[in-house]
Design a protein that fits this description.
about 325 residues; alpha/beta; Dihydrodipicolinate Reductase, domain 2; 2 domains; 7-stranded parallel β-sheet; about 30% strand
């Protein structure tokens, strides 16, 4: 039995906790969220919510922290360090933790050293980053002798996603609000740069590289109403984002992401060019929320087998939790 604490009880955290509660090999022994309105409630997962890790009973006996509190590594590092200090492995949905070696090298090194010293693994996971725009593609690349270039496209209808996600892409804002907030780096897809660096490393691209990013709002042409937001014509429906890796005068990786409410033709697609040339498309695209929950839960029985330190999804022999991992 793997004993876990769920930290962060937004829509994704609740989804992870609910799925963990249905797994016969997992026992939830703690739930943490800083929202005062949740304190003491059980939320259907069998344990009362406490406001911090320090408020958990001393005898929880946890093995793994399932961590879903934020997207930015600098803002969540203290929580990760606290889990490491308790001797817990960590599976986190923090997007910047998925591959932090380029944008946060000093913080990544410090967290990795603490995890190694503590004999635990620290893993950033999820569906994107963590699977659909990086690990899945690296798996396809394994069939190639050489990969020269990649074009990765993800289109998703944000109307099908959770409320916080719709707000994160600016749905319902004016164009002026979007420009002001995006200048602070808090709009668009957090984690796209991490996926780009992971792909570039897997291709053997040199470390001397530049990321060229374009982020622009997609404006609604008609009124769109979701369960979480109303978007009037002319307001922001979401984003179009492109990220290009530039190295040695070449552009080996191009990533394109459309995330807006009402987006037509959702899909995940990749074009691989090198010793082989092929195109792969997942019609309708992978569901982000369900996918994140599934990938995180699939990592729970595996994280303890990883070498101690800061690990990535490239280290994980991912498989559904219904498949035996050892015989």
């Amino acid at each position: 039995m793997i004993r876990v604490v769920q930290m962060g009880l937004g829509p994704i955290g609740l989804g992870i906790a609910a799925r963990a509660a249905r797994e016969s090999a997992i026992e939830i022994v703690g739930a943490v969220d800083s929202d005062p309105a949740l304190e003491g409630k059980e939320l259907g997962i069998g344990v009362p919510v406490v406001p911090s890790l320090d408020a958990l009973p001393a005898d929880t006996g946890a093995d793994v922290l399932l961590h879903s509190t934020g997207s930015f590594l600098a803002e969540t590092a203290e929580q990760l360090e606290a889990a490491i200090a308790r001797g817990w492995h960590v599976v986190s949905t923090c997007e910047e933790l998925a591959y932090p070696f380029y944008r946060h090298p000093e913080l990544a090194a410090a967290l990795g050293e603490r995890a190694r010293a503590g004999g635990v693994a620290l893993l950033g996971s999820g569906v994107n980053p963590g699977f659909v725009m990086d690990k899945f593609i690296v798996t396809l690349m394994a069939a190639c002798e050489r990969v020269d270039s990649l074009r990765v496209v993800r289109v998703l209808d944000a109307a099908t996603r959770r409320g916080p996600f719709q707000k994160k892409i600016g749905a319902g804002m004016s164009a002026g609000e979007f420009e002001k907030i995006s200048a602070g780096g808090r709009l668009g897809h957090i984690g796209l740069a991490e996926s780009a660096h992971m792909l570039a490393d897997a291709m053997g691209v040199g470390r001397e590289r530049e990321l060229q990013r374009e982020l622009r709002p997609v404006l609604a042409e008609r009124e769109i109403v979701t369960d979480h937001v109303r978007v009037e014509p002319g307001q922001v429906a979401g984003v179009h984002e492109e990220l290009v890796v530039v190295a040695a005068g070449e552009k080996p990786v191009r990533m394109e992401l459309d995330m807006f409410v009402g987006a037509p033709d959702p899909r995940d697609a990749v074009s691989v060019r090198g010793s082989q040339a092929f195109d792969v498309e997942i019609g309708s695209g992978l569901a982000g929320d369900e996918g994140t929950v599934a990938v995180v839960i699939s990592c729970v029985p595996l994280v303890a087998s990883l070498a101690p330190g800061l690990r990535t999804m490239l280290d994980v022999p991912l498989a559904p939790t219904t498949v035996p991992h050892r015989r």
